[in-house]
Amino acid sequence: MTALIDQAQAALLSWKDPYLNKNLQDTGALKSITLDEGTLNIGLRLGYPAAGIRETIIAELEQLIRAQTSIEKIDIQLDWKIASHQTETQQKPQAKIRNIIAVASGKGGVGKSTTAVNLALALTKEGAKVGLLDADIYGPSQGMMLGVPDEARPDVEGGKFFTPMVVHGMQTMSMGYLTDANAPMVMRGPMISSAFLQLLDQTLWNDLDYLIVDMPPGTGDIQLTLAQKAPVTGAVIVTTPQNIATLDAKKGIEMFRKVDIPVLGIVENMAVHICGNCGAQEHLFGSGGAQEVAEAYGVPVLGSLPLDPSIRELTDSGNPSVLSEPDGAPALLYRDLARRMAALLSQTPKFQSSLFSAVNVES
Hints:
Layout: H1 2-13, E1 30-36, E2 39-46, H2 54-68, E3 73-80, E4 100-104, H3 112-125, E5 130-134, H4 142-145, E6 156-157, E7 161-162, E8 165-167, E9 170-174, H5 189-201, E10 210-214, H6 221-229, E11 232-239, H7 243-258, E12 263-268, E13 273-274, E14 281-282, H8 289-297, E15 301-304, H9 309-316, H10 321-324, H11 329-346, E16 360-362
Parallel strand pairs: 1-16, 2-3, 4-10, 4-11, 5-9, 5-10, 11-12, 12-15
Antiparallel strand pairs: 1-2, 6-7, 8-9, 13-14
């Protein structure tokens, strides 16, 4: 029996995680492998949510084991657990938030908020507990993107704390929930920073794996306040291929580096336009810009999204791609980039001394 288990384990370890290019032992995902009355029982625990590829992983592993052993009965249990990860500044995570991820851009108009809302929804669909904080105090947009009615207001507890509004399975908060949709926010820098901290600290977030923070464009007050006052696990930079956008993306990366927030990767928006009539591909805003920035700074490109009118139309209607067309190409791309980001984060140092138990092998 021991020989069979050894063969099965060798087959398991020949499989590599599609996002980390490591085997299950190197990633810490292999918890146990036992052979009981002819059934091979395998326990796997990933460090990132992967509901969208769970069945595919199990099928691939079963195929490998059957090809390399005589075992017919296989029971693979695969789940995930998201840990709190260390920040560069060694700040402890907030009590109810394991990881804070800032989604930022060096300039406006590159699809940052669209990326933030679809990324948050994708992580939710993959099986994570997710919050979305709209940090653009001057121009909050997440309420509209999520289809929240203009008159909706969060509950207040104790005259001080906001209860996050739960939308599509996510906990959300935005300045847009507290003000009239057409009222301009006329504030100076210190007031803006104070308003942002109130939204972050006085919202009763509840047991989040990830809090996605949709940052305002640029490198101003809110970016600095977030870096100084919150344990930010990492940042995602959104850009388009054109030179002016990638130039500002570089500034965004440099800013996060100066305040000791690691950049987890780059998302390239509007990378290619596919003609709806003939299928021809056109790089309207240039090509290769995000990859050049990624290589220059040693960070990955998490995903590349096409210039697809449906992404804008669905988001504007309050029904983003991940929700309204879950099997469509844009939704699948968002879910892929969400898994990639979470997988890369899972391999960074954790606050716990050990997340996964040692591998248990029994015959």
